[in-house]
Amino acid sequence: AARQAVQKAFTLSMNTSDNNHAEAFAVPPDKVLVVEYLSCSLRVSSGETVYADLATTVHGVPALHSFFPGSSFQDGGVADKRFILSVSTRLYADPGTVVTLTVRRTVVGSASVPNFPCSVSGYYVDAT
């Protein structure tokens, strides 16, 4: 009963001129967020690499946590590569702070990356 499940689902996109897309959400002022899982799935042009950053604040100190996909595979043709980012973790965020998820790619000017899913899940606990 002390843990209150939370799941934030996002649909991100990157135009040809973008190398990242960020989404943010606020932690309620009376809760601490515990992030336990991060997941993204996207297809990019061959030669590109992607990774994700999750920015949190704990005891007033901001930190950036980077996550890299374990592997990738060809998908949808010779020019496409699919990255699956699926990471168990344990990160915290203070009450009333903003958590920001940013997905980045290494090449700008290649094909757009429309409507790819990402999610952050874990639980809230009451702040003491």
Features:
128 residues; single chain; mainly beta; five-stranded antiparallel sheet; four-stranded antiparallel sheet
Structure description:
This protein is mainly beta and 128 residues long. It is built from no helices and nine strands. It has strands at residues 4-14, 20-26, 31-45, 50-58, 61-67, 71-74, 80-93, 98-105, 113-126. It has a five-stranded antiparallel sheet with strand order 1-9-3-7-6, with no helix packed on it. β4 and β5 (61-67) form a beta hairpin. The protein starts with a strand and ends with a strand.
Concise account of the structure shown:
By secondary structure, the protein is mainly β. It has no helices and nine strands.
- Using only C-alpha atoms, the radius of gyration works out to 16 Å
What order do the strands of the largest sheet run in, or round the barrel if closed? 1-9-3-7-6
Residue fraction in strands: over 45%
Biggest sheet details:
5 strands, antiparallel
Specify the helix fraction band.
under 10%
Structural class: mainly beta
Q: What global shape is seen?
A: elongated
Helical stretch tally: 0
Gap between N and C termini, in Å?
16 Å
